[in-house]
Amino acid sequence: MSTTEADTVNDTAGRWGQRPGTREGWLERAQDVAALLATDAVARDRAGATPHAEVRLLKESGLVTLLGPVEHGGGGQTWSTAYEVIREVAKGDGSIGQLLGYHYLWAWAVRLVGTDAQIDAVERLYTESDLFFGGAVNPRDSDVVITDEGDEIVYTGRKSFSTGSKVSDLTVLEGVLEGTDKHIFAIVPSDQEAIVYGDDWDNLGQRLTESGSVEINGVRVPWASAAGYVDKEFQPLVYNTLNTPTIQLVFANFYLGIAQGALDAATSYTKEKTRAWPFGGDDKDSVTEEFYVLDAYGDLQAKLWAAEALVDRAGERIEGLLHAERASVTAEQRGAAAVLIAAAKERIVATGLEIATKIFEVTGARATSNSTGLDIYWRNLRTHSLHDPVAYKRVEVGRYTLLGEIPEPTWYT
C-alpha cells in the first residue's frame, strides 16, 4: 500500500476490500496496516490519546478476526500467522502490536478453558461482530473475589493493569471463588457500570495500550458463562495451561516487530541524513562507506535474524499444541514448548534493547531530535520487557539444559 501525507489512522473508511483468504494475504494486510500506523506513530505516541481510531483500523482491516472460524466470517488462520501479523503491526506501532497480540490471546482464552458450547458462542459473537478483547487478569495483584449467588457469580476487586481496557468490547475477568481455590474465567461486556477504568496509564513506553487500572464492582455473570465449568465444577486439562507460553510468545513477537521497526527506521535515517565523519584520517564521501557504520549494521542485522529464527521455531512448536486435540496435549510437550519460548523471549529482549540503543551511534547526534522519534523503540521495548524478570527465563532454560527439568505451569511460565 502506498501512503501519502493525507493518509492517517483516522482516515481508513473504504480502504479495505474483501478480507484475505490466504496466509500470504493476511500478512500483506498486516503490512498495509503497519505502513499506515507508521506514518504518524511518533505523533500519536506523543499525544497519548486513547487509541479508538487505531482499534477501528484493526477492525476495519479484518485483523481482529484472523483466528476466528471461517463459518462465522473469520480468517480461519493458525497461530503461526497470528504471531507474524502481530510482528508486522508492531513494526509500525509497538503499542498497537501489543493490543492486537493481547486480543488474540483473550479471543483464544475460551478455547483454552471453555466448554464446546462456550467456544462456539464466544467465537461466533466476536467474529461476526468484529469485537475487540481486553483483559483484567494481573496475577501480581490480590485475587478478584467471586461470590456464588445461586445461578450467578459476582466479581469484585481491583486490578492495577488492564490492557485494552477502554478500547475493548469484551473483557476477560479472572478471580477466585470465595472460600475455595477455584479460579474462574469469564468474558463480559466492557461497557458496563460495574467496570470502572482508572485512566492512569502514564508510562515511559507502550503509551497507547490503555493498560491502566480497573475497578470491578460487582460484575454479574451466569454460572453458565463460567469458562469450562459444568454444574459448578471444572475438569482441568494440560491444554488449559497453554495461556502463559502463548502470551509469552506474543510478547516476543511484538518485541521482534519493534526491533525490526527500529532497524528499518535507523537505516532509512542513516542513508538519508547521516553524514560521514570528516576527522578520522580516512575520510569517506558517504556515510554508507564508513567502516564503523557498516560493521554496526551488519552485527545488529545478524543478531536480529538469529532472534527471528528462534522466535519462529518457538512459534512452530506452540502452534502444534494450540491446534491439537485439547485432551492430547501432555505436560512434557507443554514444558518443552515453554522452554523454547523462554529462550526466544530472552534473546529478543537482549537483541531488541541493543538495537534500540545502538542505532543512535550510526544515525548521529541530530537523530536524537524529538521530531525524529527514534526514542520510541527503546521506550517501548524497555517498558514491556519488564513485564516479568527475564532472568527467570534464562533460569528456566538453564534448568532444562542442566537438569532436564521442564517448568511447572504458573501465571508467568
Automatic annotation (TrEMBL):
GO MF term set: 3-methylbutanoyl-CoA dehydrogenase activity; flavin adenine dinucleotide binding
Cite a single GO BP annotation: L-leucine catabolic process
Flavoprotein keyword on record:
yes
What InterPro entries does this protein map onto?
Answer: Acyl-CoA_DH_C, Acyl-CoA_Oxase/DH_mid-dom_sf, AcylCo_DH-like_C, AcylCoA_DH/ox_N, AcylCoA_DH/ox_N_sf, AcylCoA_DH/oxidase_NM_dom_sf
User: Residue ranges of region Disordered?
Assistant: 1-22
Compositional bias annotation for Polar residues: 1-11
State the UniProt keywords alphabetically.
Flavoprotein, Oxidoreductase
Instruction: List, for all copies, the residue spans of the domain called Acyl-CoA dehydrogenase C-terminal.
Output: 249-387
Where's the Acyl-CoA dehydrogenase/oxidase N-terminal domain? Answer: 37-119
Q: PANTHER family from the entry?
A: ACYL-COA DEHYDROGENASE, ISOVALERYL-COA DEHYDROGENASE, MITOCHONDRIAL-RELATED
Q: What is this protein called?
A: Alkylation response protein AidB-like acyl-CoA dehydrogenase
